[in-house]
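This is your field. Please look over both lines of this record.
***
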Amino acid sequence: MEKQTSNTRKLILGGALAATLLAVVWLEESDVEVEETVQPILPARPASSSARSKKSDMGHLPIDQLGQRKFSAEADDIFASTSWEPKRSLAGSSQSPFGLGPDGRPALPPPPAPVLAPPPPVAPPLQFKYVGRITEGKITSVFLSMAENNYIAKVGERIEAKYRVDRIKDDAIEFTYLPLGIKQTLLINNNNPGKFQ
């Protein structure tokens, strides 16, 4: 039984293969070669004399009936560049819109605006919080915190290479902001419970 189904399969596949080959041969024979012909492009024919005569029969354009164009000196310049900046009025100016001064001669440009010096640099505000202090003999150390960092500093020491402790008083700590050399003061509340003596 298996041999018979195997033979049947072979016959079906062989028949399909033969049908495919016949179809390919038939298509190759039935293709007709198409010749492509290239035709030259002919130049456009000039307008015939009858077309020209039709245009001339339409009549002439009555230009004298259109009227005179009116010009206003207050009209905006249609070729000017547009900007979001407000327009400067010419009312308070002694200069005409044509670049002439009051005497009819070409006007001089306005003097340039004085250049202002940039503002002096400013140190950022102190971010230190006073936590406490300790005094050993004549040396006083202060405990400071900034963000998540805690510092112990004495007079003359640097904190983060940006600040130097210059002076420690009972009610204030004086710093120098090193990048700009600006002095800053941190006031101390004497009622602070973190004070050690």
Notes: Strands lie at 129-136, 139-146, 149-153, 158-159, 163-168, 172-177, 182-187. Residues 2-30 form the longest helix (29 residues). Confidence is low (pLDDT under 50) at residues 192-197.
